[in-house]
Design brief:
About 0% of the residues lie in helices and about 50% in strands. The protein is an all-beta fold. The strands form 2 sheets. Strands 2, 4, 5, 6, 9, 10 and 11 form a 7-stranded mixed β-sheet that branches. Strands 1-3-8-7 form a 4-stranded antiparallel β-sheet, with no helix packed on it. It is globular.
Length: about 130
């Protein structure tokens, strides 16, 4: 098991930026593929971005391509989500997730593919 703690959420105006962080503790961080998901009020949790164990492979939901960037720093046991050009529809609780990966380049897009979740951090974008 790995413990995940998100931070960096907050209130921002449309067009602004935020950087979310997800710090992992417990088992070896580099063994995990990581992802970011979000859940808006009254909606299901949805995939946002994912990154492989190596950091060399990434994948994004269409609605964030070109605006969000996922990255990881193994030395800090941390995954980041840089969010630019934020829109009111990006308002949601953002969750970090991790799953053990034996493939250094595998990215996991499905909620069911993850078995470790953080508590979430609120992102609110005002118009």
């Amino acid at each position: 098991q790995v413990q995940l703690v998100e931070s960096g959420g907050g209130l921002v105006q449309a067009g602004g930026s935020l950087r979310l962080s997800c710090e992992a503790s417990g088992r070896t961080f580099s063994s995990y593929a990581m992802g970011w998901f979000r859940q808006a009020p009254g909606k299901e949790r949805e995939f946002v971005a994912a990154i492989s164990w190596s950091g060399g492979s990434t994948n994004y939901a269409d609605f964030v391509k070109g605006r969000f960037t996922i990255s990881r720093v193994h030395a800090k046991n941390t995954v980041f989500l840089q969010m630019n050009s934020l829109k009111p529809e990006d308002t949601a609780v953002y969750y970090c997730a991790a799953t053990v990966s034996l493939d250094t380049e595998m990215v996991v897009l499905s909620i069911r593919g993850y078995d470790n979740w953080g508590q979430g951090t609120q992102v609110t974008v005002s118009s």
